[in-house]
Amino acid sequence: MPRRDVATIVVGRYSDIGENRYMSMPTETVSGATAEPRAHATRVTVDRVLDLVVVFAIITSLVGLAAALAGVFHAPQVLLGSLLLTGWYAYRTQGRSALPGIAPRWWHIALLLGVALFFRLPAYHYVLGGQDEGLYVNIAHYIERTGGIEAHDTVKQRLLHTPAIQQYTQDNQVTVDSYLAGVYSRDFKNGKVEFQFYHLLPVWMALFYGIFGSTFGVYALTFFALLSVLLFYRLTLLLTRSHNAALTAGALLALNPLHAFFSKFPVTEVPTLAFSLGGFTLLAAYWSAGIEHRQQRWLILSVLMFLCLFVTRISGFMYVPFFIALAMVTLACDPDPQRRRLMQRWTIAVTAAYLISVIYGLTWSHSYSHDIYLAVFEPLLGESWKVWIALIAVGAPMLWVAIAILTREPERRIRLANRISGPLSMLLSVIVFAALLIGLLKIYRLAWTSRYASDSWLADQWHLAGGGWRSVGATSLWTLVVYLGPLLLLAFLVLIGRRQADPRIRFLRWFVAGFFVYALLLQWTVPYGPYYARYLLCELVPYLILFVVCAWSAMRVGGGRAALTAALFLSVIYAAALSAAQIGKSEDDGAYQALARLTAPVEGNDLILLNTLDQNGPDTSVLKTPLLYTFGRNVVTVGNAALENSEYLAELDAIYDDLFLISPNPVPPPGFNLLDGVRFKVLAFRRTHLFPRDVVPAQDTVLYLYRLDRVQFPLGSVQTFTAGEAWLQWLGLGWSGAESWGVWSAAPQAEMSINPHQLPDVKNGLILHLDARVFVTPAHPRQRVDLSVDGVLIDQYSAVYPATNLAMQIPIGEELLESPRRIFIDFALPDAISPKEAGTGSDTRQLAIGLIDISASANTQTGTSPSPMPAQNQPVPQGANPPR
What we know:
Blueprint: H1 20-23, E1 29-30, E2 33-34, H2 36-70, H3 75-92, H4 106-118, H5 132-146, E3 151-152, H6 154-159, H7 165-172, E4 178-180, E5 183-187, E6 192-195, H8 200-212, H9 219-240, H10 243-255, H11 257-262, H12 269-288, H13 296-310, H14 320-333, H15 337-364, H16 366-381, H17 385-406, H18 410-448, H19 456-461, H20 469-473, H21 476-484, H22 486-495, H23 503-521, H24 540-554, H25 559-580, H26 591-599, E7 607-611, H27 620-629, E8 634-638, H28 640-643, H29 646-655, E9 659-663, E10 672-685, E11 695-708, E12 719-720, E13 735-738, E14 743-745, E15 749-754, E16 766-774, E17 782-789, E18 792-800, E19 805-812, H30 814-818, E20 823-828, H31 835-838, E21 849-858
Parallel strand pairs: 7-8, 7-9
Antiparallel strand pairs: 1-2, 3-6, 4-5, 5-6, 9-11, 10-11, 12-21, 13-14, 14-21, 15-20, 16-19, 16-21, 17-18, 17-20
């Protein structure tokens, strides 16, 4: 018996799809005999694995995202919970996993996954901030470390009611609504910030970080890349019933240089593709099965896969019109009443899933959602875009209902199907080629005319207007040629005009054409690659490949099929060559290692001052984002003004244990000591309009790590001795604990010890001004203070009741300021007494004076000592009353 070539089967009438005659087709022959039992066993095994992997991906996505939103994400528990739920699903669905059509082959799957891995290892652990990929990684680290997505500017929270908040806000608030690139500032009062983007990809990376280690999160992309290749193969097999076609399609995706690159580059395109392929594969499985073999759970899982897609990437609104159109066409053209009915329910469920994602986005990613909707819809629909969206949201369901009413009667449904079938097919070809011509005209006007000379994006930002062939390279059409190869794109343009008998391929044809038109007319420029080329990866590149392979599989043997076979073969070789150029090169290589070394000495309650405002070096967001969210350090952006602001540094030093400075400046500011220097050389693929092939330094500088040894006392600024202030470190023996107003002496002798390098270097010396309160009562009316500097009596002060405040002046000579020894200031307090002894309370501390604040001024009287100021009856500061 001759072997039967299933690739030559052409699906005819609409109602043929899903009939039982396809379920019993021979799938393999062994020595001339059909091996149906063996094929069935293989089908169940392979499809069972695929079924469970898809269910695991859905459960892990939804459980992980819910845990992160609730602030209780813990990687081991999320993984174990997902495995348990997947196991329960496996138990409940035993014997029901086989998809319709012929069975996949294990060696095909092994080959495709092996090839895919070969071009996708290692993944890029991209930690630098400033762009999407770094932000996704940093969000993932933050989720894994904190368990949630809620984030705050903790430094702002601690400085909010201090004088330092003005300097901090000036240096650390990019705009009113922006804290860092990709991090929104939502609430100034409590320091709340909000991450840009949806959170499902970071949740998956956080899961991998928590299970495998701090540099393995990006391998979540590897998982989705392999899953997308597997689903691509399985979907092609469902649509074509041809192992050769499925293997060809799988190879084209596994080798595709765009998919290979972004399988290692942490952005959402590859997970989005995996979820969409899962949704379409399950939908096609239900559509293709005979009535007795259909399983409604395929439709349920398909809806959940699209829900995962919608909460991965905000562009889900581009899918919904295709789904609603599919439901309407099904009403008019599908003779199967059960499938027609369930397709309506499926579309309603998918639309509801999208609305859930909108609510999710506006709740947990509000600023980003609003910005994206504004950027997408306002240019298309004008300032009244919200009104138009509302009208569409009302009009589409009304049209849907009208078609449902019109197609209730079979005869009317058949007439409607006959009327729309031909015109729709011709309309599609007209739309595609009209878009191609308009797209070419736009490219010509960009490259060789002044049409876009005043465009702020194309002319001012990217300098593409009037750029000739360089501008041509910065377009989506050219990018498609690069990443698909010219033969695949040409085949698509030829095949798009051919009518397809299989309704599943018809839908695929419309889906691909829609995104092709979008790429040519709306997303038509690619400022540089490979970064901006990713917008072609989710839908256009893979589904264009799928359409071409399906159309090739349905072609009759002849010259056209032979030519297309040669084109596919050459495209496979082309893709492999371009993907091979990426091997051995790594995006963002060197960044994580350098920052890990710099942050090693910094502990949890220390503070990093990041000097990027007035230096030639990396942008603030590039460094600050990973320091905050990947390494979990406290970070403040500073410039020269902040580093010269001693009062500001003193406030920060009082709050945190140690202050460190990261700066590209090899000269340390006063008071800072060098700890380490790290060559910060970060490699990245060269920006180009061709495929990624060369890595060049994206950052190349030396970053120095300094530690603050001493805080410089600010000249002319009043500094307090309240709890948490930096100058409490000067107080030695004889002092009590700091309170909200200041600090009490607690013995007949008290001492102050000052590092002279912390004092301003002033010619002729300086004078320290101490404001204090005294503990006097009617029963104990006097307090005396004998003040000495380095053992030399400087002055004697006395305060007599009812005077409650005392001002003291301490001259510090120039020789003391230049001395390497500490300056010791002694307070002899012969009248110290406890409130208990004075009869005013139960406090047993020996109180005499309470230091309130201190300031310094230049000494203008060389060689003289100030006279003691007479005690005055001044009001007691609020909160500074003697203890009772």
